[in-house]
Write a structure and sequence with these properties.
Order of helices and strands: HEEHHHHHHHEEHH
Helix content: 25-40%
Strand order of the largest sheet: 1-2
Structural class: mainly alpha
Radius of gyration: 22 Å
Mean pLDDT: 85
Low-confidence stretches: 229-233
Number of helices: 10
Length: 352
């Protein structure tokens, strides 16, 4: 799986790619730029991907094995379409045939699977097994929470963050961001506690980002584009496009997956379209930039504003958070504190 991940065997147009072309270990197994060449959506990180209930921003497949090959039609013999179509749809035709042209890979598949030629099934198993090993934990937040539990405290407090931040090295990741905000080491514990409190309280982030993975594994329309939804003609976007007739829901139009908030420091830009380059911009967006839309996620709605959800002329108003500057700064720092240790070096390509 590791060999396949880093070897440029995927064809798109006239070019060859590897999985790592878009899922670069240096950037948390995603990309630093907006989206891959020819693509329109932000590349999702593969860190902790083993815990995903569905894959891709629109959840169109359930398992990691399906992300590269989904049917025998993928082994088409006709020339591949444009790179834009291939990358956008993540549909890599002829992948198994390409493996069969490499004598070294053929021998390795024979050794591991006992087959004479690589197949879609064996290639998918190998890649999925590798991706499930891309794990990251032990973040500053996790270590502070360990302190909290050892003290039998009900919630994270300033002293729990302070116990971890006594070591200067623990604060490095908190001050390494394009926002260029550099609070002093003495201010960090209080700011982190304020951010934690806002995350679970006033800002309401935990409604969609709960639990140890900081995701509800659901799909939401976050009101990024007030016109995004089902325009005239019934064209759908987001999760609704992938749900079969009979299971479609109003809220899934223009809805995309709730990503895990772990390892955000290495995975900018953010949102399904890569529209926000820093965590501060993300916080500012949810504070006052969410736009009215018919399909807005319920946790983002203003419950005091009367709205109808069953008509084309309905309007749903977003709630405004009214965060203070200190709460915003603390929230950004708290999000950075979810950065875990890098993936095991044994999973990375060998540099000769």
């Amino acid at each position: 799986g590791q060999t396949l991940f880093f070897k440029p065997l995927l064809k798109a147009g006239n070019d060859s790619y590897s999985c790592s072309s878009c899922h670069d270990p240096r950037y948390g197994f995603t990309e630093e730029k907006l989206h891959p060449a020819g693509g329109k959506v932000n590349t999702l990180s593969l860190i902790n991907v083993v815990y995903n209930r569905r894959q891709f921003w629109d959840g169109r497949v359930a398992t990691l094995e399906e992300t590269v090959v989904r049917s025998f039609e993928d082994e088409r013999t006709d020339p591949p379409p444009s790179a834009e179509k291939v990358i956008e749809q993540h549909n890599w035709g002829g992948f198994a045939r390409a493996l069969g042209t490499d004598k070294t890979l053929v021998a390795e598949f024979k050794q591991v699977f006992g087959i004479d030629q690589p197949t879609q099934n064996s290639a998918a198993q190998a890649l999925a097994t590798y991706m499930r090993a891309l794990l990251s934990g032990d973040s500053l937040h996790d270590r502070a929470d360990d302190v909290r539990r050892s003290m039998s405290a009900p919630t994270l407090a300033v002293e729990h963050f302070g116990a971890i931040l006594k070591v200067e090295a623990s604060a490095v990741s908190l001050r390494n961001d394009k926002d260029k905000r550099t609070p002093t080491l003495a201010d960090l514990p209080k700011l982190l506690q304020q951010g934690h409190a806002a995350f679970h309280g006033k800002a309401g982030c935990a409604k969609c980002h709960p639990g140890p993975l900081f995701t509800d594994h659901d799909f939401h329309n976050i009101g990024y584009d007030g016109n995004e939804g089902a325009p005239a003609g019934g064209v759908e976007t987001g999760r609704s496009l992938q749900v079969p007739v009979g299971l479609k829901q109003w809220r899934l139009v223009g809805a995309y997956r709730t990503p895990s908030l772990r390892n955000l420091n290495r995975t900018a830009p953010y949102f399904h379209n890569g529209s926000h380059g820093t965590l501060r911009l993300v916080v500012d967006f949810f504070d006052g930039g969410v736009l009215p839309t018919l399909h807005l996620a319920k946790p983002l709605m203003d419950d005091t504003f009367p709205s109808r959800l069953d008509g084309r002329n309905a309007i749903v108003m977003p709630r405004r958070l009214h965060l203070t500057e200190a709460e915003k700064e603390g929230l950004v720092l708290y999000l950075r504190s979810l950065q875990g240790e890098p993936a095991d070096a044994a999973l990375l390509p060998v540099v000769k």
